[in-house]
Amino acid sequence: MTTTGEDHEAVPTGPWWWARRRSAALDGGLALVSALECGAEGVPFARDAGIPASLGIVFGVLAGSVLLIRRRWPIAVVLVAIAITPAQMGFLMGIVGLYTLASCELPRRVIAALAGMSLLGTMIVTFVRVRQDMARGDLTLGNWFVPFAAVTTSLGLTAPPLLLGLYVGARRRLMESLRERADSLERELQLLAERAEERAEWARNEERTRIAREMHDVVAHRVSLMVVHAAALQAVARKDPEKAVKNAALVGDMGRQALTELREMLGVLRSTEGPAQVQVQTQAQTQVQTRSQVRTRAEASEQGVPGAPDAVPLAAVGAAAAAAASRAAGGTPEGPCLSELDELVGQSAAAGMAVDLSVQGTVRPYAAEVEQTAYRVVQEALTNVHKHAAGAKTYVRLAHRSAEIAMQVENEPPPEPASASAGLPSGGNGLLGMRERVVALGGVFVSGPTDAGGFRVSAVIPAS
Q: Could you give the domains of the chain?
């Protein structure tokens, strides 16, 4: 599992300025070794300086112990190492101090200046010591050996720890950058997952609303006509048997049509539930796989394997989420069209309604959702007339315009106010459903009573 930046920046568990106890133990061990080294080197220093050996040992131990604060104040450690270089002590402290200095988040000019001071100090001290040894006869090599020994010794004590520290510092910064990038990708994937869930929920709600609207249109219109024909059948059953038989046949036809449309709607409902769930599950699996790829690439980067997570297909994940949400809503099933408007008006006329249909403009095909919406608006308006103004003369007007299609259903006041209602229940959702249909296509819907006491329903829908 990838160690992210949030995990890396956890609360420190070590004492004082150390992030971990292991780091504190390492620095303590290095400081102890450095103190022992400087204490041992303090004996010849005290002899050369003409001071007591114990004082030289104490000075060496105190100087070597400064390595304990290398993580908190690396500059101070390097300065102390440079200061005690003439005494030929603190070699370990100088090496570790330069490594720590190079790996810290300090300006490069500061690191270069201190490294140059350490190199120059070591070079001068080595040059002087080697020259003194040759003057005493301890070394019998030529004069060329003095600068050679000074340069090689200073470079050997300065360059390796400096280069290693620069490499470790750069690698640490790279890993922190990768951790931050992994955290950012995790947050973006989580946000995409939340948005996908919201879109899926929105799609399910839209599907429920659409199915409920279709069910209302089918049931309300067909059942209203069936009730009207049943009332007429009851009225003429004894007086006119032939007309009663005709009305009974119409009631049967209406019932069969209603059952057929309901069966189609239920079939669509069953067919859209399964794929939607499969799509949501597929989308979730894709997000999990993408998240695993992010972690795998980050782990590979930590282990030095090439292939850091330079680019994760977030846009592809977002597109897949949007596509799954849109597909979950399901396509609009095949529904009625404007060519069936004459049959719709004929059914209302057969139920005893005086309805007049007029069409203006050139008839042309429209998008399926436009024709279906226009048909449903007229159907629901006629159903409301059957419910609330039985027997009223009704005018249905349809206008084909250049960029839109307009429809209007207007009824006159019912001839008998007492029988204005056919006894059909009304949930008050018909007008709301028509408005939702029209507005969803970018159209305009207006409804309300007329000055003459009737009711008017008007809608304008863009042609594309």
A: 5-182 (no CATH), 335-464 (3.30.565.10)
